[in-house]
Amino acid sequence: MLARRIIACLDVRDGQVVKGVQFEGLRAAGDPAELARRYDAEGIDEVVILDVTATLEARQARAQTIRAVSRELFLPLCVGGGIRTEDDAAAAIDAGADKVSLNSAALADPALLTRLAGRYGSQAVVVAIDAKRQGDEWIAYTRSGSASSAREVVGWAREAAAHGAGEILLTSMDRDGTKSGFDCELTAAVSDAVSIPVIASGGAGSFEHFAEVFVTGHADAALAASIFHFNTHGVAELKQFLRTRAIPVRT
Amino acid sequence: MIALVDYGAGNLTSVRKVLGAVGAAVYTPPGPEDLARADAVIVPGVGHFESTRTLGQAWRHAILEQLDRGRPLLGICVGLQWLFEGSTEAPGVTGFGVCRGLCDRLPDIEPVGGVRQKVPHMGWDTLSFPRPSRLFADVAPGSYVYYAHSFAAPLARPTVATSSYGVEFTAGVEDGLVSGLQFHPELSGKVGLQVLRNWVGGVR
């Protein structure tokens, strides 16, 4: 039976892992390669590196981080943050990323998804959507959550999938860093609208929250950062808990 | 040296990395004529069956020649599907044909129970072994491996591993010198390493 995936996110800045609360107030959490190794030993299913402040000059540093993390990791590795062109994607993939995640660039030019899918396969193309609730819908935000794209999230998710995206990394900006639980309503709305996997992100604070987002939110995978980084809860313990709830996870 | 055939179907960085980790020396033959010095051949691949069209007569001939010389062949993902006769994904493209049957799209709805399921089949799923094989030696039934595919090969005589996603499909084949894996061993953690170690162990 297909397992629900548990994904660890490494928010990286200047080669170090940091984690923000609602995208602001970053606090240091450690060496990315060391963290990735620990997660691998604990049974993580996948790792995402998000270079939250990726700039032109940071690109080389990023390739170095990707290489260091991928060296000993034999699991899918996704890299996002500041990937705007085919060349950016190629640089990340050549450094060892199995997937690249695009946000602002995909909104500006959805055909970029098609080009990348043609070159690397859809399984290598992830669309990251930062969603903020507005009234009874959600709006996609860009530029690390600082600007509204005015695109309604469910419609954008469908369009991205039609353009060749292979997965959606869906972050609730309202829940991110709050530890109050994933936005199950948002996750289910997107997951039910597309046939590609949806990774729920933002708000993980307890094991119960993961069970909720798999059962109520119809998530195919759930991503968290700080809950794992600061050793609050181990990946192995989380999986054991999910098993007691009859949620299939990889052993 | 193991030849990793790069026919433009996706990224081979992780495949190279994992082969290095199990102690295999790898090179990428620029053309079919460069296969002659290979001790074994790997045909990887992601995405659409159409991409295997690039593996035209010259490549087929060179790969067959290597098999005749006793050199093992391993197909990964679309590379496994290519070992079959073809795929409904690209009806005009002929497979290598060493395994009988056509690859077909995985069902959107489970035939039993009628539950809607997503296609692609993406993520970690379990293996079953209808019979023992060299490829899956020391791999426990129920082990998880990483998949990313929408099409799959039917069960065939050389099938030595299966997984189920609405239907049961071929996860691994082994028939003399020919082996294939539908999942991505390079992304399947310790299990993937073990399977590749088993395969590389049979290469001299």
Helix content of chain B: 10-25%
Query: What's the main sheet of chain B like?
Result: 7 strands, mixed
The succession of helices and strands of chain A, N to C, reads EEEHEHEHEHHEEEHEHEHEHH
- State the CATH class of chain A: Alpha Beta
How many DSSP H or I helices of chain B? Answer: 4
Tertiary shape of chain A: globular
Please summarize what this structure is.
The complex is a heterodimer of chains A (251) and B (204). With 251 residues, chain A is an alpha/beta fold.
Relevant terms:
heterodimer; A: 251 residues; alpha/beta; TIM Barrel; 8-stranded parallel barrel; 10 helices; 12 strands; B: 204 residues; Rossmann fold; 7-stranded mixed beta sheet; 3-stranded mixed beta sheet; 26% strand; globular
Any overview of this molecule?
The complex is a heterodimer of chains A (about 250) and B (about 200). Chain A has about 250 residues and is α/β, with parallel strands linked by helices. Chain A is built from ten helices and twelve strands. In chain A, strand 5 (about 75-80), helix 3 (about 85-95) and strand 6 form a beta-alpha-beta unit. Chain A is globular. Chain B has a single domain (about 1-200), classed as Rossmann fold, CATH 3.40.50. Chain B is globular and about 50 Å long. Chains A and B meet through loops of A and helix 1, strand 7, strand 8 and helix 4 of B.
